[in-house]
Amino acid sequence: MITLHHLNNSRSQRIIWLLEELEVPYEIKKYQRTSEQRAPPELLKIYPLGKSPVITDTGAQGNENIVLAESGAIVEYLIKTYGNGKFAAATSGQAYIDNLYYTHYAEGSIMPTVVQKLIFGMIPDRSPFLLRGLLRGVFGKITEMVVNPEMKKHSELVESHLATKEWFAGGSEPTSADFLMIFPAEILESTGLAGPKTKEYAKKIHERPAYKKALEKGGEYSILKR
Ligand SMILES: N[C@@H](CCC(=O)N[C@@H](CS)C(=O)NCC(=O)O)C(=O)O
Asked: Cross-referenced Pfam families, in alphabetical order (predicted)?
């Protein structure tokens, strides 16, 4: 049995989408962010970094004791173990390369920049009142000089890829790259940085019944409402 340890308002939402698409039995254990927007300490009992998503699973034969974190690893594991060929990426050619690249680019490149932007935006408001003005200036300048130009490059890269492809690997069905890329695509949209193709891509996913069901099951996901 698969258990997804799910944190509200988090990248873990993409795993619920995949589980719904795979139509595999699973349960969700929900965790609530603290007032500091961190995961609660209970998650440390499941995974030493105390982050979400993390799954526990007894495996395809039901006799294993798997604990797996990192969205990319979880997505690849679930597709390989429970997909029966569904959502499998090509094993050669451009589709293979695109799937490989975007599966890793999601958490390896675009998300660290997104997190920098979100954190730099949050720090001043969460600092002692007297320092807020100063910190807003400092973090605003760093964001303007370093983070925003990086975000613009990411947004353009994603947009130009989606200009010619329905899914990130170019086929007619999503692959691991899409289950990873939906989260940064949603953030690009919610921060006003998504181009028209990126918006169209997110909309297409949001209209899928499995995605809608995942939203019902996951609970609070304010990334879509910002
Ligand atoms: N690269 C990891 C990132 C995991 C991560 O940072 N998760 C966030 C949720 S979006 C988290 O648990 N944050 C709470 C915390 O760090 O306390 C993945 O893709 O799973």
From this structure: GST_N (PF02798)
Q: Is 71 in the pocket of ligand 1 (CB under 6 A)?
A: yes
- The span from the CA of 72 to the CA of 33, in Å, is 22
Shortest-distance atom of ligand 1 to CA 9:
10
Average pLDDT of the residues in 7-17: 97
Cβ 103 under 6 angstroms from ligand 1: no
* Terminal C-alpha separation, the chain: 34
Ligand 1: residue whose CA is nearest its atom 11: 51
Alpha-carbon span 86 to 222, nearest angstrom: 29
pLDDT digits (tens, 9 = 90+) for 111-154: 999 999 989 998 999 899 999 999 999 999 999 999 999 999 99
